[in-house]
Design a protein that fits this description.
By secondary structure, the protein is of the alpha/beta class. The protein contains twelve helices and eleven strands. The mean pLDDT is 85. The structure holds adenosine-5'-triphosphate. This is Proteasome-activating nucleotidase.
């Protein structure tokens, strides 16, 4: 390497001759020029290196983006070895040895849930399975709803009792007659008409565990996860026999096939197929009854309505006038009512409302009384409550139209 010249002192004594001074300065200039050249070379090398890293960064960013875009699969870590991580994919149960970055490795242990890409590289670690199950499935050992809490849908209640309660309590009757009880019951109708209540009440009255799963929670998940959750659901029900499985918003996993072939659709299809296959093997399931509910009957794939599946359809409509009177009475059982309260007039004035609307009116009427510092709820409180709720509903409709 060339000698560096850092000092700013002149490279000669004060008494040196002119000629010698020039020579020394020239010598110094040469050294500096050499240094300059060397620095320029280094700078060029560094620039070239920088370019190389930039390109690599761009490539990795692009690959990373691609990895995130492509569908991910769920797998469970089986073993952590020096050669990599052994994972087992959900759905097909295939095992694979895959490499993992040191950073991710520190987050993993046997039984960790991970998301893997097409080439089975671990992309990220996932929440604990129990967290997902808890979010998707609610287990209620004894729901509090009774048949007496439900108003205006007697016919539907009788049908649910016949199809769910009878097989649970008197399976021998079906054997004696020589017929199979209906496999699944599908409740369909507008929101807030008591579908969930019916399922809870029948579980309560038969001392069965109520297990609720929301269909919408099963979609937009990783490949293989929806069907695994369906298997887990039936396993959970088996552990809690007798049990009533309630699948709310079944349209989320059982909508008619669309033409699009996106991976999301395929995953929804797989989840539904798993549900159907669990239902097809239903005979051995003993004391488990399945009730599903939807507000979108028109959207359902007819495959789920075939015999042996959801073969008992029960429409749960909004209550009629008599039903509304009854529901008003039910929801005001514990309220301190003034003598002027007349449910027949209220049921008439409210018009075509759902049971959930009636419940909302009674609660809001109570709030009006509290705001007015009264303990007794009056007829006007109910009227004001309905006016307020109606105005809010109209506002909501306007908002949803604006954003539609
Ligand atoms: N027929 C009814 N009798 C008494 N209360 C009712 C009735 N229908 C609805 N309600 C009241 O409305 C609430 C919501 O009803 P529920 O959840 O059973 O409706 P749903 O039909 O399952 O609605 P969604 O389709 O929106 O899930 C109930 O907790 C209850 O307070």
């Amino acid at each position: 390497m060339t000698d560096t010249v850092d000092d700013v002192d002149m490279p000669y004594e004060d008494d040196t001759s002119q000629q010698e001074k020039i020579e020394s300065l020239q010598e110094r200039l040469e050294v500096l020029e050499g240094q300059n050249e060397e620095m320029r070379d280094k700078l060029l090398d560094a620039n070239a290196e920088n370019n190389k890293y930039q390109q690599k960064l761009e490539r990795l960013t692009h690959e990373n983006k691609k990895l995130k875009q492509s569908p991910l699969f769920v797998a469970t870590v089986q073993e952590m070895t020096d050669d990599g991580v052994v994972i087992k994919q959900h759905g097909n149960n295939q095992e694979a040895l895959t490499e993992v970055t040191d950073e991710l490795r520190s987050e993993l242990e046997p039984d960790s849930r991970v998301a893997v890409n097409n080439s089975l590289s671990i992309v990220k670690s996932l929440d604990d399975e129990t967290d997902v199950r808890a979010r998707v499935m609610q287990v209620d050992q004894s729901p509090e709803v009774t048949y007496a809490d439900i108003g205006g849908i007697e016919e539907q209640m009788d049908e649910v009792r016949e199809t769910v309660e009878m097989p649970l309590e008197h399976p021998e009757m079906f054997e004696d007659v020589g017929i199979d009880p209906p496999s699944g019951v599908l409740l369909h109708g507008p929101p807030g008409t008591g579908k969930t209540m019916l399922a809870k009440a029948v579980a309560n009255e038969t001392d069965a565990t109520f297990i609720k799963m929301a269909g919408s929670e099963l979609v937009h998940k990783f490949i293989g996860e929806g069907s695994k959750l369906v298997r887990d659901l039936f396993e959970l029900a088996r552990q809690h026999e007798p049990a009533v499985i309630f699948i709310d918003e079944i349209d989320a996993i059982a909508a008619k096939r669309t033409d699009s072939k996106t991976s999301g659709d395929a995953e929804v299809q797989r989840t539904m197929m798993q549900l159907l296959s669990e239902m097809d093997g239903f005979d051995e399931r003993g004391e488990i009854r399945i009730i599903a509910a939807t507000n979108r009957f028109d959207m359902l794939d007819r495959a789920i309505l075939r015999p042996g599946r959801f073969d008992r359809l029960i429409e749960v409509p909004k209550p009629d006038y008599e039903g509304r009177v009854q529901i008003f009475k039910i929801h005001t059982r514990n309220m301190n009512l003034s003598d002027d309260v007349d449910f027949e007039v209220l049921a008439d004035e409210a018009g075509e409302v759902s049971g959930a609307d009636v419940k909302a009116i009674t609660t809001e009427a109570g709030m009006f009384a509290i705001r007015d510092d009264r303990t007794e709820v009056q007829m006007d409180d109910f009227r004001n409550a309905w006016e307020k709720i109606e105005a809010e509903e109209e506002e909501d409709e306007d908002v949803s139209k604006t954003f539609a």
